[in-house]
User: What shape does this take?
Amino acid sequence: MKPYYRPSNYTMANSVGYLMRVCTNRVLPQMEALFDHEELTFSQWTTLVALHDGRIRTAGDLAHNICHDAGSLTRLIDQLVERKLVIRSRSDSDRRVVTLALTTRGTALVEMLAPRVMNFWNDLLADFTHAEVDTLIQLLTRLAVVAEDKVRGDKPSRLLISEVPISVPVKAKKS
Assistant: This one.
């Protein structure tokens, strides 16, 4: 394909990078506000969601997949372990590897709070058709994979984009 951008057509209005940055900067504070009165922060919930399907099992893969720096992620995981939402354990096959997994309580929190996030996105995407949302998801996924491949080169990709749905929220037990 011929290059899309040229000096004569590259503007803020058509810059994919600029538009992605603007979207992130507009959406992130709104997402964080969804969790203002919850026992989790948005970053903590994102961490739990990434661990939800069990494919991401180490802090390194977690940091890579949710684009979080290792130092602050360690503190975040410490908080989640302390609150009994995540467990750490040594790998049976390699004792040097520490694995992460959700506890039953962590899974329940993900499932309980997921409708709030889904409602947010449904509201934001209300003026888009389902086909447009599907196309947006496909294109963003493809861009993420291409960018990952560019960074990783010949090394295997560590990008683990889950396709496992978050199940129906857990109903609270009657006391």
Strands lie at 86-90, 98-102. The radius of gyration is 19 Å.
